[in-house]
Amino acid sequence: MANILSQDEVDALLSSFADEGDGAEEAESPEPTPEETKSESKISVYDFRRPNRISKDQLRFLEVLHEGFVARFTGVLSGYMRTMVEIEILSVEQLTYGEWVQSLPESTCVFPFSMEPLQGSGAVETSPSFGLSLVDRLLGGQGAAVDRSRDLTPLETGILARIADQQIRGLAEIWSDMMVFTPKIEGFEKQPNMLKLLPDPETVVLITFEIKTQTLNGTISICYPFVALEPALTRASAGAFGANAIRPVKVPDGPAWITKGLKRGRVDVTAKLGTGMVTVGEFIRLRPGDVVRLETRVDHPAEVIVGDRPMFHARAGQAGRKLAVQIVGRMDEDGGQMRGETDGT
Question: Would you say the pTM of this structure is higher than 0.90?
Fold first, then answer.
């Protein structure tokens, strides 16, 4: 009689067949191709509870739009600081309001601003150390980097608030073709956790700028509420604005408009009668009515300096009870009188 297998022997036999089948499948499975490996590396995590509300095209639109803001604000800041300023857009990204607040340091400089009649409020943020360096430059210093930050005084806060006000005015200008709002600084906050502009889950747009001068290097960021930008971004995606929304507007009669503006500009005009040398002792003893001997002949024309450049020859005299000069000719680059000039007043 044939041997009958026990249940344990049947289970062991079946398990051995299963192991052999798995090994065969593993041997037959081909190695993953480079294309498959590359496709697997593109997999990214997506949170369906917080879907992206701003497309890549809209983010690119915001970047191009704010390049116009960079051009405007660079001129404003250069005028304030009396030096060359370079501003560059570092990033344009979307995140939640809670994530933005958590990304800020415990102590910073935040200027919230309203966007009436739009919904929500935005904010301008920079670091205290960069803010102090900026204030130092605006008050006549070198604007050297500050190693250790401290709390800003009310005067320093007011100066930075003025700069922030110029920023948000520039923002209103670049958005004027798409939406009209009146920005207004609403205060100052150094602890971002105390700032409650929006609910934490609300989406915001964060644009970060890098500012460079010869002595300064720092960042300033602008936080927009998405609820305020959504109508304009939706129309931008539909092609309602296109390139015209960020193209400079041609001013009618531009040359005449520029000439008119230049004519209203003020320049320093100085008449130099001559030069002379005195000792320090003689200078200290000078009193009203004293006479200083110059190294210039009496009949030699005076120089009229416009700004810091000698421009005209003139004769000194009086007009009524006031001292005056009469223009007699224009100076050439070498300081001599150019031919063909006629006397004038």
Answer: no
